[in-house]
Amino acid sequence: MFSSTKTGHFAHIMVTALVGQLASQGLVPPDPDKVEQYGHLIIQALVALVTIWATVRKALQRPEAVVKLPADGVVAVAEAAAAGESVAPLAGKSGNGND
């Protein structure tokens, strides 16, 4: 307001006191059911944000590099597997991909 004058300063104090009285009369303790509902809404909003963030992050992720093997190497491994022989994994990695 006009706090640079004495009247403005006094009016500011009175209006602030009036607003404080009105606010304190209107404020009541929240209903526990409403608190629980707002809690559920906040949790749902957080889950939605995390889901959207993960989806966007996955969509923007670079594709993994594909290791191209020569066809004769694949055929040799397939023939050895068909014959029942034990074949060492290619490039020192296990065949299950859980390294």
What does the model show?
The protein has 99 residues and is an all-alpha fold. The protein is built from three helices and no strands. The longest helix is centred in the middle third of the chain and has 28 residues, at 32-59.
Radius of gyration, in Å, reads: 35 Å
Parts with pLDDT < 50 across at least 5 consecutive residues: none
The CA-CA distance between the termini, in Å, is: 69 Å
| Number of DSSP E strands | 0
Most strands sheet: none
As a percent range, the share of helical residues equals 55-70%
Q: Would you tell me the overall average pLDDT?
A: 77
Q: Which structural category fits the helices and strands?
A: mainly alpha
DSSP strand (E) fraction?
A: under 5%
| Overall shape | elongated
Short description:
With 99 residues, the protein is mostly helical. The protein has helices at 6-26, 32-59, 71-83.
Topology:
Layout: H1 6-26, H2 32-59, H3 71-83
Characteristics:
mainly alpha; 99 residues; 63% helix; 3 helices; elongated
